[in-house]
Amino acid sequence: MKITAKFVHANIVAKDWKVLATFYEQTFGCVRIPPERALSGKWLEDATGVPDAALRGVHLRLPGYGETGPTLEIFQYQQQPEKAPTAIHCPGLTHIAFAVDDVAAAREIVLNAGGGEVGKLTTAEIPGAGQITFVYLTDPEGNILELQQWHRNQELF
């Protein structure tokens, strides 16, 4: 049996949800989807397994998919442990990617908005897939981003 599924959202737990949401809005053109969330109660504790769970945050519509597209959910828990360092080669989910029309220019925008560097801007030929220009960076809280541009028969994305 196969599950019928549709991608809905990805979540980032932030140190400061307002600052991180603003970064994604201003840098990538994500759009805030009301209402802002202020969630707590036994139901949230039961669902998350976090004692006395309480969080605040927002959903941001990701660019390129219209009014019904997937969102980036940015939440901040009232009590949360320190984040372990993230690395591109650690098991588990490691990054989110954005297709852009100019990787070098987008890289500078991310860095100027408080992001950080992970690796070098690179162009490579991927056998059977085409040429890609990409770079790994971080958002202001250290979450890894990939900016990419595929070059296939003059198509941008």
From TrEMBL:
Originating species: Vecturithrix granuli
Record SUPFAM superfamilies: Glyoxalase/Bleomycin resistance protein/Dihydroxybiphenyl dioxygenase
Domain of life: Bacteria
InterPro entries, per the entry: Glyas_Bleomycin-R_OHBP_Dase (IPR029068), Glyas_Fos-R_dOase_dom (IPR004360), VOC_core (IPR037523)
Listed name of the protein: VOC domain-containing protein
Domain VOC positions: 6-150
